[in-house]
Amino acid sequence: PAGPPEPAGPPRPARPGAPILTLEGRAAPGLFLVGWLATIVGLGIGAIGLFASDSGVRPIILLAGLTILGLGLVAGAGSQAIERRARSAPFTGPSPILAFAASVPLTLVLGSLLGGPLEWFGLDPSSPAGALLGVAVTAGVSIGVVRLLVVGTGALRWSEMGLRRRGPGIAEDAALGVAVALPVLALAALLAVLLSAFLAVPDAPLPLAGDPLGRLLNLLSAAVIAPISEEIFFRGYATTAWERGVGRKGAIVRSALFFALVHVLTVGGATFDEAVQRAVFAFVIRMPVGVGLAWIFLSRRSLYASIALHAVYNGLPLALVFAAG
To answer: Torsion over CA of 96, 97, 99 and 105, rounded to 10 degrees?
Structure first.
């Protein structure tokens, strides 16, 4: 008679990355595959464009690579949303980090397509008008990404992101946002004074404006367009998504860290050490407003409160500088 079966050994460890890269069991395998392939191809073409020797061909190759990369990341985010819905996850939309990553190359492509022709007609990219165009393009892409990947997939409705169409509480929410902005500004100013004693101070995010029109354009960029679009993305979308996954406190911390980190990605300097100092400076002074924005949004469940706080935080220093000449 046959003897007893030999005991099975310990399960073989899965190959590194297998659960991430496999198509088996995917709710949307085709979209998942397209996302990965387009992302890899886009990165490859973009790298070729960066090192291309022909200066005339380089921008075309870069734009092609960025376009494919952006579409690949959008496809990957859509695939992730479908997977989360199939698993009945607490939040059924894509990760805010993945959605932000998708918005970056698309913003660069759209900005190049619009900015290039306008530059031929005399628009200076470093002028207040050029900065306004850049802020408007960024805002349009970020809101478009939220509409496509979050609202379009049914993960969140606009009302769930704090955009109520009407109601008597809107004015109250906005007033509370203005009131909270003042102590947040004071704390940020105190941190700026302390940090400036041993860290390099970043350059102003907007160009200098020597005339009233330029000052008005800067104020429109900083106190109107940027607060609306950033609050829709960082608070309405990202903070709500993280609250469903990790709770209120975790969402506030993640949202503040994400908000501060995104705002230092373009900080640079003459040397690596100077760039690091400026990035640390910019990150630290944005943490108080990041926490304040997430807190007031979750407390009021209203984007009008966080938009008002953000608008005053950005706009009041500009207005004071303008008033002082």
So the answer is: 150
Going by C-beta distance under 8 Å and a sequence separation of 6 or more, which residues neighbour residue 262? 100, 234
Phi and psi based region of residue 162 (left: phi greater than 0; alpha: psi -120 to 50; beta: remaining): left
CA distances from 79 to 82, 88, 143, 161, 165 (A): 5, 14, 19, 22, 31
List all residues 6 or more positions away from 252 whose beta carbon is below 8 Å from its beta carbon. Answer: 239, 291, 294, 295, 298
Distances (CA, A) of 176 to 16, 169, 312: 50, 10, 11
pLDDT of residue 1: 53
Which of the 8 DSSP states describes residue 1? -
Distance CA 112, CA 94 (A): 27
- Phi then psi for residue 80, to 5 deg, are -65, -40
SS3 content of the chain, % helix, strand, coil (to 5): 75, 0, 25
pLDDT at 18: 45
Q: What is the DSSP letter of 161?
A: G
Question: How far is the C-alpha of 15 from the C-alpha of 197, rounded, in Å?
Answer: 50
Q: Give the C-alpha distances (Å, rounded to integers) separating 233 from 95, 143, 163, 216.
A: 12, 7, 12, 25
Helix, strand or coil, per DSSP, at residue 95: coil
Please tell me whether residue 93 adopts helix, strand or coil conformation. Answer: coil
Length of the chain: 325
Please, are residues 107 and 138 in contact by the beta-carbon 8 Å criterion?
A: yes
When pLDDT is cut at 50, 70 and 90, the band that residue 165 belongs to is: low
pLDDT at 9 over 70: no
38 close to 71: Cβ distance less than 8 angstroms: yes
d(CA 300, CA 177): 10
Of the two residues 19 and 231, the one the predictor is more confident about is 231
Chain Cα centroid distance, residue 241 = 14
